[in-house]
Amino acid sequence: MYQNNADANGYNANKKELNLSDRNLRELDTAIIATYGECIEHLDLSHNRITRLEWLYQMPNLRCLIMDDNRLRESHFEKLKKVPLPKITTLTLNKNELSDLDTTAEMLQQIFPNLEYLSLHGNPMCPDNLCLQPFSEFVPYEYAHYRDVLSKSLPHLKFLDHFSLDAKQLPKESHCIKQEKSIQQPIISFSGDLWSKLKNFLSVPNATNSNTGQNENGNRLVSSLDFFSFQHRVMIQHINECIRKETAT
Protein backbone atom coordinates (compact mmCIF):
# COMPACT_ATOMS: atom_id res chain seq x y z
CA MET A 1 0.00 0.00 0.00
CA TYR A 2 2.52 2.60 1.06
CA GLN A 3 4.86 1.86 -1.87
CA ASN A 4 2.75 4.29 -3.93
CA ASN A 5 4.68 7.44 -4.92
CA ALA A 6 7.91 5.82 -3.73
CA ASP A 7 11.17 5.96 -5.67
CA ALA A 8 13.14 2.94 -6.90
CA ASN A 9 14.57 2.40 -3.42
CA GLY A 10 11.17 2.41 -1.75
CA TYR A 11 11.37 5.94 -0.32
CA ASN A 12 8.28 8.14 -0.27
CA ALA A 13 9.44 11.73 0.15
CA ASN A 14 5.95 13.06 0.85
CA LYS A 15 5.47 10.76 3.83
CA LYS A 16 9.18 10.49 4.74
CA GLU A 17 8.89 6.72 4.82
CA LEU A 18 11.20 4.03 3.50
CA ASN A 19 10.02 0.47 2.84
CA LEU A 20 12.80 -2.11 2.57
CA SER A 21 10.75 -5.05 3.74
CA ASP A 22 11.17 -8.60 2.44
CA ARG A 23 14.47 -8.04 0.60
CA ASN A 24 16.61 -10.64 2.36
CA LEU A 25 18.89 -7.87 3.61
CA ARG A 26 21.65 -8.77 6.05
CA GLU A 27 22.76 -5.20 6.60
CA LEU A 28 21.58 -1.73 5.65
CA ASP A 29 23.40 -0.35 2.63
CA THR A 30 25.63 2.61 3.44
CA ALA A 31 24.42 4.38 0.29
CA ILE A 32 20.82 4.12 1.52
CA ILE A 33 21.82 5.58 4.87
CA ALA A 34 23.76 8.41 3.23
CA THR A 35 20.91 9.25 0.87
CA TYR A 36 17.92 9.01 3.20
CA GLY A 37 19.24 8.86 6.75
CA GLU A 38 18.57 12.50 7.61
CA CYS A 39 15.05 12.43 6.11
CA ILE A 40 13.48 9.17 7.21
CA GLU A 41 10.75 9.27 9.86
CA HIS A 42 9.14 5.87 9.15
CA LEU A 43 11.21 2.80 8.31
CA ASP A 44 10.06 -0.75 7.52
CA LEU A 45 12.76 -3.43 7.53
CA SER A 46 10.50 -6.39 8.25
CA HIS A 47 11.21 -9.86 6.86
CA ASN A 48 14.96 -9.41 6.48
CA ARG A 49 18.00 -10.71 8.39
CA ILE A 50 19.42 -7.46 9.76
CA THR A 51 21.07 -7.81 13.16
CA ARG A 52 23.55 -4.90 13.23
CA LEU A 53 21.71 -1.80 14.40
CA GLU A 54 24.29 0.97 14.88
CA TRP A 55 23.05 2.73 11.74
CA LEU A 56 20.03 3.90 13.76
CA TYR A 57 22.21 6.73 15.05
CA GLN A 58 22.45 8.04 11.49
CA MET A 59 18.67 8.55 11.30
CA PRO A 60 18.11 11.42 13.74
CA ASN A 61 14.47 12.00 12.75
CA LEU A 62 13.29 8.39 12.85
CA ARG A 63 10.05 8.01 14.82
CA CYS A 64 8.59 4.69 13.65
CA LEU A 65 10.66 1.52 13.23
CA ILE A 66 9.38 -1.84 11.96
CA MET A 67 11.79 -4.76 12.30
CA ASP A 68 9.48 -7.76 12.36
CA ASP A 69 10.95 -11.15 11.48
CA ASN A 70 14.68 -10.37 11.55
CA ARG A 71 15.76 -13.05 14.07
CA LEU A 72 16.76 -10.31 16.49
CA ARG A 73 17.88 -11.28 19.99
CA GLU A 74 18.55 -9.11 23.03
CA SER A 75 22.30 -9.26 22.38
CA HIS A 76 21.88 -7.50 19.04
CA PHE A 77 20.83 -4.34 20.88
CA GLU A 78 23.83 -4.21 23.23
CA LYS A 79 25.73 -1.55 21.29
CA LEU A 80 22.74 0.80 21.43
CA LYS A 81 22.49 0.90 25.22
CA LYS A 82 25.00 3.71 25.80
CA VAL A 83 23.10 6.34 23.81
CA PRO A 84 19.27 6.27 23.76
CA LEU A 85 17.03 6.97 20.77
CA PRO A 86 14.34 9.17 22.34
CA LYS A 87 12.64 10.20 19.10
CA ILE A 88 11.46 6.68 18.28
CA THR A 89 7.94 6.34 19.67
CA THR A 90 6.74 3.34 17.67
CA LEU A 91 8.54 0.01 17.51
CA THR A 92 7.42 -3.37 16.23
CA LEU A 93 9.67 -6.38 16.77
CA ASN A 94 7.14 -9.11 16.04
CA LYS A 95 8.36 -12.63 15.25
CA ASN A 96 11.94 -12.18 16.41
CA GLU A 97 13.91 -14.18 19.01
CA LEU A 98 13.61 -12.06 22.17
CA SER A 99 13.57 -14.69 24.88
CA ASP A 100 13.84 -13.00 28.29
CA LEU A 101 11.18 -10.57 29.52
CA ASP A 102 13.25 -8.68 32.11
CA THR A 103 16.24 -8.32 29.78
CA THR A 104 14.02 -7.11 26.95
CA ALA A 105 12.21 -4.62 29.20
CA GLU A 106 15.49 -3.18 30.47
CA MET A 107 16.87 -3.00 26.95
CA LEU A 108 13.81 -1.16 25.63
CA GLN A 109 13.84 1.23 28.58
CA GLN A 110 17.47 2.18 27.98
CA ILE A 111 17.35 2.50 24.19
CA PHE A 112 13.76 3.60 23.47
CA PRO A 113 12.64 5.52 26.60
CA ASN A 114 9.76 7.34 24.88
CA LEU A 115 8.00 4.40 23.24
CA GLU A 116 4.24 4.82 22.92
CA TYR A 117 3.42 1.93 20.58
CA LEU A 118 5.13 -1.45 20.90
CA SER A 119 4.41 -4.89 19.46
CA LEU A 120 6.31 -8.07 20.36
CA HIS A 121 4.02 -10.81 19.05
CA GLY A 122 5.64 -14.12 18.24
CA ASN A 123 8.73 -13.70 20.41
CA PRO A 124 9.54 -16.53 22.87
CA MET A 125 9.06 -14.16 25.85
CA CYS A 126 5.62 -12.96 24.76
CA PRO A 127 2.50 -14.86 25.95
CA ASP A 128 0.67 -13.14 23.11
CA ASN A 129 -2.44 -15.33 23.06
CA LEU A 130 -2.46 -15.22 19.24
CA CYS A 131 -0.70 -18.57 18.74
CA LEU A 132 1.71 -17.10 16.19
CA GLN A 133 4.34 -19.50 17.49
CA PRO A 134 4.21 -22.41 19.93
CA PHE A 135 6.34 -20.62 22.56
CA SER A 136 3.36 -18.99 24.24
CA GLU A 137 2.33 -22.35 25.69
CA PHE A 138 5.53 -22.58 27.72
CA VAL A 139 6.00 -19.03 29.02
CA PRO A 140 5.82 -19.34 32.84
CA TYR A 141 3.83 -16.14 33.40
CA GLU A 142 0.51 -14.63 32.37
CA TYR A 143 -0.01 -11.82 29.89
CA ALA A 144 -0.91 -9.44 32.75
CA HIS A 145 2.57 -9.89 34.26
CA TYR A 146 4.21 -9.37 30.87
CA ARG A 147 2.14 -6.22 30.32
CA ASP A 148 2.93 -4.85 33.78
CA VAL A 149 6.69 -5.35 33.41
CA LEU A 150 6.78 -3.55 30.08
CA SER A 151 4.42 -0.72 31.06
CA LYS A 152 6.48 -0.01 34.21
CA SER A 153 9.66 0.06 32.16
CA LEU A 154 8.12 2.29 29.48
CA PRO A 155 6.05 4.99 31.22
CA HIS A 156 4.88 6.59 27.96
CA LEU A 157 3.53 3.34 26.51
CA LYS A 158 -0.06 3.59 25.21
CA PHE A 159 -0.46 0.49 23.07
CA LEU A 160 1.13 -2.94 23.60
CA ASP A 161 0.70 -5.69 21.02
CA HIS A 162 -3.00 -5.64 20.08
CA PHE A 163 -4.24 -3.96 23.27
CA SER A 164 -4.55 -0.35 24.32
CA LEU A 165 -3.21 0.14 27.83
CA ASP A 166 -6.20 2.41 28.46
CA ALA A 167 -8.56 -0.51 27.94
CA LYS A 168 -10.94 -1.34 30.74
CA GLN A 169 -11.18 -4.91 29.56
CA LEU A 170 -7.89 -6.72 28.99
CA PRO A 171 -7.30 -10.44 28.39
CA LYS A 172 -7.69 -12.67 31.43
CA GLU A 173 -6.28 -15.72 29.68
CA SER A 174 -2.73 -15.55 28.39
CA HIS A 175 -2.14 -19.00 26.93
CA CYS A 176 -3.49 -20.55 23.77
CA ILE A 177 -6.33 -22.90 24.59
CA LYS A 178 -6.23 -26.22 22.78
CA GLN A 179 -9.25 -28.42 22.46
CA GLU A 180 -8.52 -31.74 20.75
CA LYS A 181 -6.83 -30.79 17.47
CA SER A 182 -8.24 -27.32 17.14
CA ILE A 183 -7.04 -24.04 18.63
CA GLN A 184 -9.59 -21.75 20.18
CA GLN A 185 -8.71 -18.17 19.23
CA PRO A 186 -9.03 -15.53 21.95
CA ILE A 187 -12.00 -13.23 21.94
CA ILE A 188 -11.01 -9.58 22.19
CA SER A 189 -13.59 -7.44 23.96
CA PHE A 190 -13.68 -3.70 23.35
CA SER A 191 -15.19 -0.90 25.39
CA GLY A 192 -16.69 2.02 23.48
CA ASP A 193 -13.72 4.27 24.20
CA LEU A 194 -11.21 1.61 23.23
CA TRP A 195 -13.13 0.83 20.05
CA SER A 196 -12.92 4.48 18.97
CA LYS A 197 -9.20 4.51 19.64
CA LEU A 198 -8.63 1.29 17.71
CA LYS A 199 -10.50 2.60 14.69
CA ASN A 200 -8.37 5.72 14.74
CA PHE A 201 -5.13 3.81 15.38
CA LEU A 202 -5.60 1.26 12.64
CA SER A 203 -7.49 3.45 10.17
CA VAL A 204 -9.74 0.55 9.09
CA PRO A 205 -13.02 2.17 7.99
CA ASN A 206 -15.04 -1.02 7.53
CA ALA A 207 -14.80 -4.75 7.20
CA THR A 208 -14.67 -4.66 3.40
CA ASN A 209 -11.41 -2.73 3.32
CA SER A 210 -9.31 -4.43 0.65
CA ASN A 211 -6.08 -3.97 2.59
CA THR A 212 -6.85 -6.16 5.58
CA GLY A 213 -3.39 -7.60 5.93
CA GLN A 214 -3.88 -10.87 4.09
CA ASN A 215 -0.53 -10.25 2.42
CA GLU A 216 1.97 -10.84 5.19
CA ASN A 217 4.96 -9.32 3.35
CA GLY A 218 5.79 -6.16 5.22
CA ASN A 219 3.62 -3.79 7.20
CA ARG A 220 1.47 -0.99 5.89
CA LEU A 221 1.81 2.54 7.11
CA VAL A 222 -1.31 4.15 8.57
CA SER A 223 -1.75 7.48 6.82
CA SER A 224 -1.74 10.63 8.95
CA LEU A 225 -0.75 8.71 12.08
CA ASP A 226 2.53 8.35 13.90
CA PHE A 227 2.85 4.60 13.75
CA PHE A 228 2.63 1.58 11.53
CA SER A 229 -0.24 -0.83 11.86
CA PHE A 230 0.66 -4.35 12.98
CA GLN A 231 -0.17 -6.27 9.85
CA HIS A 232 0.06 -9.83 11.00
CA ARG A 233 -2.88 -11.66 9.56
CA VAL A 234 -4.20 -13.14 12.80
CA MET A 235 -4.49 -9.80 14.53
CA ILE A 236 -6.09 -8.06 11.56
CA GLN A 237 -8.63 -10.87 11.29
CA HIS A 238 -9.55 -10.37 14.95
CA ILE A 239 -9.95 -6.63 14.51
CA ASN A 240 -11.97 -6.97 11.32
CA GLU A 241 -14.26 -9.42 13.09
CA CYS A 242 -14.80 -6.83 15.80
CA ILE A 243 -15.56 -4.25 13.11
CA ARG A 244 -18.18 -6.54 11.62
CA LYS A 245 -19.77 -7.09 15.03
CA GLU A 246 -19.67 -3.39 15.84
CA THR A 247 -21.26 -2.30 12.57
CA ALA A 248 -23.90 -5.00 12.84
CA THR A 249 -25.17 -3.67 16.18
From TrEMBL:
<dbReference type="InterPro" id="IPR001611">
    <property type="entry name" value="Leu-rich_rpt"/>
</dbReference>
<dbReference type="Pfam" id="PF14580">
    <property type="entry name" value="LRR_9"/>
</dbReference>
<dbReference type="InterPro" id="IPR032675">
    <property type="entry name" value="LRR_dom_sf"/>
</dbReference>
<dbReference type="InterPro" id="IPR043313">
    <property type="entry name" value="LRMDA"/>
</dbReference>
<protein>
    <submittedName>
        <fullName>Leucine-rich melanocyte differentiation-associated protein isoform X1</fullName>
    </submittedName>
</protein>
